[in-house]
Amino acid sequence: MEAVVFYVFSALVLAGALGVVLFRHPVYAALSLVGTMISIAILFLAQDADLVAIVQIVVYASAITVLFLFVIMLRGVDRADDEPDPRRFQRFAGILLGVVLFAEVLVLAGREWAVGTATGANPLDDAQGGNVRAVAEVLFTDYIW
């Protein structure tokens, strides 16, 4: 039963997130965001995280989304859908930048993994320290203030 709940609501989360990105009308995107947030809250409930689920619904699904809708309504949504999009270049540049950044993350992660496996040390192994411990030590010693 838990697996069914997980798969159904995970699919709803993904569908809602795609709706947020792909809907051209901002009100539909905001309502899709509400569906995504409620589905995430149900996933939290499935993991027995009741407080986080309630906070998810009260803060994100209601307050933040109402704020988004308020801004959308103030901005005005009476623009016709058949008008050409003035931000075509920005969309292309954003997609291109996202692909470049994703490729950079893959290259850097591959290099870190190759260095760790070449020396025989797993960079993700907690017993040997790993990157998490090194970053935590620097954050909480050198950069605490």
Q: What are its keywords?
A:
mainly alpha, 5 helices
Plain-language structure description:
The protein has 145 residues and is mainly α. The protein has five helices and no strands. Helix 1 packs antiparallel against helix 2 and helix 2 packs antiparallel against helix 3. The N and C termini lie far apart (48 Å).
The gyration radius over C-alpha positions equals: 21 Å
Mean pLDDT: 82
Distance between the termini: 48 Å
The helical percent reads over 70%
Structural class, please? mainly alpha
* Tally of helical runs: 5
Record the SSE blueprint.
Layout: H1 2-22, H2 26-46, H3 50-75, H4 88-118, H5 130-141
Helix pairs in contact: 1-2, 2-3
Provide a brief overview of the structure.
This protein is mainly alpha-helical and 145 residues long. The protein contains five helices and no strands. The model has no long low-confidence stretch (mean pLDDT 82).
